[in-house]
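Milestone M4 deliverable, item 7.
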Amino acid sequence: MAKHGVRVNVVVDATGRLINKLELTKKGDILITADHYFMEYALERGLVYPSLKRITLIIPALMVSKKSNVELKQVGDLAYLASKGLKIGIADPEVAPFGRIGVEYLRRAGVYELIRDKLYIYPDVGVLARYLQVGVVDVAILPHIIKYWYPGDVEIVWPKPEEISGLASCQVGAVTKYSTRRDLADLFLNELVEYVEGLDPVKTGYVGKLSDLSRIAPYDYGKIDLPWVCLS
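Output delivered:
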């Protein structure tokens, strides 16, 4: 608005619900998904143009509420914590990318079947993050960026690279087939990508370039094998 005099209206929801709204209403100029899998789905449905923009890299991680006084060192500890009655939350895997990613993360760790009936399911990562912040939830699987939303309220336990190989994701943007001003939509996305790449990840948590990841996470750039399927 300040730079080009163009009003930007933002609709926020779980990615799956956003895609459903877009398909039903046929309204919206830009779609930004919380992971690349949902964007691929939107592309297959013919909802967006194939010129996709990677906005930021996202790592799934364990988050611990500082109000819960929980000691958590690795994902394998969750079975013990759940047996003690601590609340472990994930976003809804049916509509929220990090719900789906969280389930797969737990499966790989061999703890999903042990705690699946004890998991607390929340509509999206925003709701889950707020409950974690105030201590309603003790532990959650969330994108790493949540640590930067609530730096004084949550701690992050970074996963080992092999635990999330293929699960590390990207927020992706694309212009929808229903856009009435594709020129402005393209301009917005291009400038958004430039803006994110110019941010300091140490201060914001937003990682626009893979080379910046090792500035905030214990991963050695050049030796990271996740793989990042959304980097191509």
